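Chain A, query sequence.
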Amino acid sequence: MAKKAIPSRSKSQAKRPATPARRAVKAKLAKQQPAKPKPWTEAEVVEAFSRFQRANPEPKGELEHLNPYTLLVAVALSAQATDVGVNRATRHLFPVADTPEKMVAIGEEKLRDYIKTIGLYRTKAKNVIALSEQLIVLHGSEVPRDRAALEALPGVGRKTANVVLNIAFGEPTIAVDTHLFRVGNRTGLAPGKTPLAVELGLLEIVPPQFARHAHHWLILHGRYTCIARKPRCEVCIINDLCRWPEKTV
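Chain A, predicted structure.
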């Protein structure tokens, strides 16, 4: 038996009428959506970084190192680990291995013993030996002042390259870690769904006179003031500029 053809729905039938009740529901849902924060003005950005500068004129990274090479190693070791934990291990390591040649001479197995208190220490030990070998062969044992060359080294990503370029060579780079990512989004200063988006957003708005230290100020702010749980809004020096709707002051 032939099937009966199902008549197609007309446009008027396909679209349900916007009754007063449906409009009310839509309006209620729209109100529940968080309002998009108003972007910071140029004057507000300057004011925020001026305050950071007055409070801490020469901010420093908290990873202990002796030279650009040990800085590179320390940052590579810090992935998914705390600076405190890395420093605890490298205080014993760097006095005996502060060059690529010395690190290679120690070897992967002994290096693991030095850094076994750090997360993912087996993979990190392998990468540190491999990057040390590449520095010797490809760069004359020197840490390159070039992003592409740094990111080509084993275990070195964009964040690590940015830290090395900034601290070792004074480049105005911004390394987005979990703290800076939180600050960029929570304050509305440079919101973004990825670390790269936050980094690029900050590079667009940070005035040149603050570019050298911007990432240090923001990381330290996120580490000690704009913390993940119960941010310390009462002592925040930019709380009047911050766009976070849940701040406590």
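The first helix runs from residue 11 to 14. The chain has 13 helices and no strands.
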